[in-house]
Amino acid sequence: MVNYFLSPAFRYQPDPWKGSTAKGTGITRKKTFKEVANAVKISASLMGTVMAKRVKATILYGSETGRAQGYAQQLGRLFRKAFDPRVLCMDEYDVVSLEHETLVLVVTSTFGNGDPPENGESFAAALMEMSGPYNSSPRPEQHKSYKIRFNSISCSDPLVSSWRRKRKESSNTDSAGALGTLRFCVFGLGSRAYPHFCAFARAVDTRLEELGGERLLPLGQGDELCGQEEAFRGWAKAAFQASCETFCVGEDAKAATRDIFSPKRSWKRQRYRLSTQAEGLQLLPGLMHVHRRKMFQATVLSVENLQSSKSTRATILVRLDTAGQEGLQYQPGDHIGVCPPNRPGLVEALLSRVEDPPPPGEPVAVEQLEKGSPGGPPPGWVRDPRLPPCTLRQALTFFLDITSPPSPQLLRLLSTLAEEPGEQQELETLSQDPRRYEEWKWFRCPTLLEVLEQFPSVALPAPLLLTQLPLLQPRYYSVSSAPSAHPGEIHLTVAVLAYRTQDGLGPLHYGVCSTWLSQLKAGDPVPCFIRGAPSFRLPPDPSLPCILVGPGTGIAPFRGFWQERLHDIESKGLQPAPMTLVFGCRCSQLDHLYRDEVQDARQRGVFGCVLTAFSREPDSPKTYVQDILRTELAAEVHRVLCLERGHMFVCGDVTMATSVLQTVQRILATEGDMELEEAGDVIGVLRDQQRYHEDIFGLTLRTQEVTSRIRTQSFSLQERHLRGAVPWAFDPPGADTPAP
How far apart are CA 455 and CA 523, in angstroms? Predict the structure, then answer.
């Protein structure tokens, strides 16, 4: 009888102003601070509970230019839809923690001759040192240095095949190795122009399996010559879907990737603003902030053109004064990284297109509006740490890449800012059609300014430039001197680059760093740093014979070698084995670099043999360095490498290096009476013993035909991917080496 109601009766109506709202008005009752705080506390608790139940994912990146880092951050945003991810650089990660991980995703580039990027070297070394399953009696393959094995490892490795078989036979997780509970995926960035395409990513992928991890997805590979961004997106979507299925996470992979990779999702005008800063830019600290490494300032002593005045090209010798700075000490064979500025005319023209530039000379910083998260920091404006405080002109001059063709992602952003519908549609098409984008990029090779001239209705906000343009990367050059011969100095041998796009009918483009260096005067500062190359140095035993092969500016490190040998002979009283130099140039009267120096070194006992290949000598057939090796030095190559435990050094562009490698392989097969495959194994042993050395740089204008062929192959592979005809690991072992 407690719950009863008497009728008829009078009832009191609640105060309407406390809980009711007049129909059609937006007036609501204000919440008290205590009510809001309780709501936030409850939602934070609920979100914390949800996140605690999510599977943790670790995303590791190794990056030389910042592109792999950007992809890793995109991957982190995607996996945040269903997992609890963290994004770390490889040099910030303790490899021992892999034993406690559940899901690891790796995005990494490959640097130079199949090496890890600099911030991935410690990770690579530690990963190779980890003990794998079933290795109580390690095979010789396991004792190879990690860089050498990273160049040669493949999915067909018999060691890995054996472990796969044993793992299938075993049901005990512990016997699967230290990483028996790990699931992983790897994506590699590289260029098919190089013989060791994505070598470091291949090695990490294989090594994680060797240690007992389970691969969720075949190795993904992105080729910078064709469709790298599209390849990453496809791989990221597949990796997210595979991870969701493996860990029983019900998330729509298609919707998640569409949301993450949408241009509207990646950049919104209202989420960025510029704030005035009191402190101006100091260049060296600013460069250290951007590139995360110690920088030094050298001073120009002289700049000299090494080619004849009759030549239409230029190759310069740049002499720098290091002022005895300890951080600029080096050994012959090392590299120097130079941080050049963009051309002032290009910067000024781009500034004129910015719709809302800050006042000239006013240091600014970018601030981003963070939404905040339950249990985390509240919503508010947070400074973007990517760039130091500087003026917009300084950012475009010293820190941002304004000469490389814009990526498809940047074109998508520009399409949202185009006011003319036709231009907007064209930009969207370029950003979404991989083949059309690649043809447009390789034919025009447009700078950002040229894109804006092609699409003049695009409005260009300053925050977009400061947040979306890639960073201006250092340029690396082989040091072209020996400290024993030129104490306190660093010499560079630099080819000055200038070319026209659009089959020679387009605008004139200049090499950013080479053009800047060619215009410097004595006393001008040069921001720089030394990057060691321990795998490209003269042998400690000077009695071992050496063959040096370097056409064009590939002779640069060898100038340091012969200066070092002269010092050994004349200052130390040593009698080193005479070296053999094979040089290549176009014409003896135009670009025969260091001819007098080489002849002087030969007369003083450094060289026993000097041969030169001329590719455009009048009234003579075209001859290249590999032709010299085949026709005049075949017996010596075999004797030095196979009988006398000597060394061979090759420096130059990737096409030449590949041709030389194939020539040496044929020479060893012929002179050593062995099969071609066996000769290839011998070269692998030479590399492992650090007796076949390569210092390879990228494609040049002379390799356009090779570039076109490689891009055509990449197009074909990419289209097969999109049709699902081949998995993401689309290269059979050994297929990454360009054909002769």
Answer: 41
